[in-house]
Please model this.
Amino acid sequence: METQPLKNNISSYIIQSQEDEIKRIALELHEGVGQTLYSLFTGLKFIETTVEQEALKGYVSDMGELLEKTIQEIRLLAVELHPPTLTTLGLLPAVKSYLKLYTSTYGIEVDIDITGEEVCLNQSERITLFRVCQEALANIARYADIVRAVMSFSWKENDLTIMIKDNGKGFDIEKGWEKSTGLAAMRERMLFIGGDCQLSSKVGEGTVVRLSLPLNDTTDKK
Amino acid sequence: MNRSEEIAHVCESILANITADFVGLALQNREGPDVRWHYAAGNSNEKYKRISVRYGKGIAGKVISTGSPITINNFPEDIQGKPLEYPIMLAEKLLYAYAVPIHYKGAPKGVILVGSRTNDPITDSEQKMIKQAASTMEGMLDSLF
Model:
């Protein structure tokens, strides 16, 4: 009875469906709701120019400002859900863009070191690597208690290695794998794209996450 | 003493007079809705200087958007949403926080946050003192807007 491949297929399907749904919602927010609100905003601006009563003019102006904030919020939410650069420009630009947001959100600076030429990955590889990097960085923000981390990308002919290092608190690896569903999900996601996720950590010394992905001719350049 | 030094002095004096570990002042940017931490006392690192939250996000963004005080107890257990939505709590390893709005020209534009790295809430009289400090600071924000 081949239960393991079936389980893997189901998990893969769930992850893929979730990503598709996130992407759909992001697109709908950006292209649908966002555009409709923008039309309302321009309409409101026009109304503002025609209103003569000062009090009403101020009220319409306040509504316009609120609408503008909402439009910005919708756009940022859409980008956070699924960064468009991931599809248009690739993994590295999306990660670099995310790191700027990460530093301005958590105050943690991340040095990035890149060797080799970026290879065009297929969509599922790009999104998986991006999500796993996001998870590793989120763990640093939550647990590591550091002000600076290091991320390296090593592109070689046959493989890509990404390392995310911090010299923070560290943790007991065995307990970490047992307790954290986030860590297990990182490994699982990597396995689905044919890669691997290795973790090393020592209490008081820090943590290294090592992601590796073989690059081969079957890579779908979607 | 210039305005910045006065504001820093208020933060330090709050910290000296209540049983807390951290006092921070966040202000909404002059342009755009984002909220940034400008001053801190009792900070364990400089991360607060780089943290910027959107209007309505994080403790500071929520206090400014609602115009009401917010209390966080027993972080990260008893919170709404995810711990990652509370960057200043993570950056300063706070377990308790009490944050009040600072108004400028009638609208909430800033926040004073008092936090503790133990799970001990501040007293009602200390909360009053923080609200009083927030009122005092309202007159000091002219130079920052």
Observations:
- The longest strand of chain A covers residues 206-214.
- Chain A touches chain B at residues 69, 72-73, 76, 103-109, 138, 141-142, 145, 147 (CB under 8 Å).
- The radius of gyration of chain A is 22 Å.
